[in-house]
Amino acid sequence: MSQQIPESHMVLFEKPIVAALATIMPDGQPQVNPVWCDYDGEFVRVNSAKGRAKDRNMRARPQVTVLLVDPENPFFWIEVRGKVEEITEEGADAHIDLLAKKYLGADSYPFRTPTETRVMYKIRPTRVQAVDMS
């Protein structure tokens, strides 16, 4: 069952807040990486290069958690548990450029390497914990 991001916490996806993405390694250990993300009204979307550990993890074990904490108020945060429903290269370059605009103010992603293939992951929220203790 899908859950929506509450309106009260949409601002966390609108600000350039670096999220923590937790994936599951082959041995069952969690791996947590800082990532850029956005929310399109249905999916939390993250982007990476094909072949990285988080890419391999999400392909093999699609259960993930995304955590965003407001850097100005650590008592205002959201945890989104979900399942990666789509992994696609289509639109991934445009998506990373969109995230570069949000996070860096740059028109295109400046850290792209000539050999990398960008991948976009669409995460359907299945459990959302939105906290505001301020």
Question: Could you please describe the fold and organization of this structure?
Answer:
By secondary structure, the chain is α+β, with helices and mostly antiparallel strands. The chain has one domain: Pnp Oxidase, Chain A (Roll), CATH 2.30.110.10. Helix content is 19%, strand content 42%. It contains three helices and seven strands; from the N terminus they run αββββαββαβ. It has a seven-stranded antiparallel sheet. It is globular and about 45 Å long. The chain starts with 10 loop residues before the first helix and ends with a strand.
How are the secondary structure elements laid out?
Blueprint: H1 11-14, E1 19-24, E2 30-35, E3 37-39, E4 44-49, H2 53-60, E5 63-69, E6 76-88, H3 92-104, E7 118-132
Antiparallel strand pairs: 1-2, 1-5, 3-4, 4-7, 5-6, 6-7
What is the structure about, briefly put?
The chain is an alpha+beta fold and 134 residues long. The chain has helices spanning 11-14, 53-60, 92-104; strands at 19-24, 30-35, 37-39, 44-49, 63-69, 76-88, 118-132.
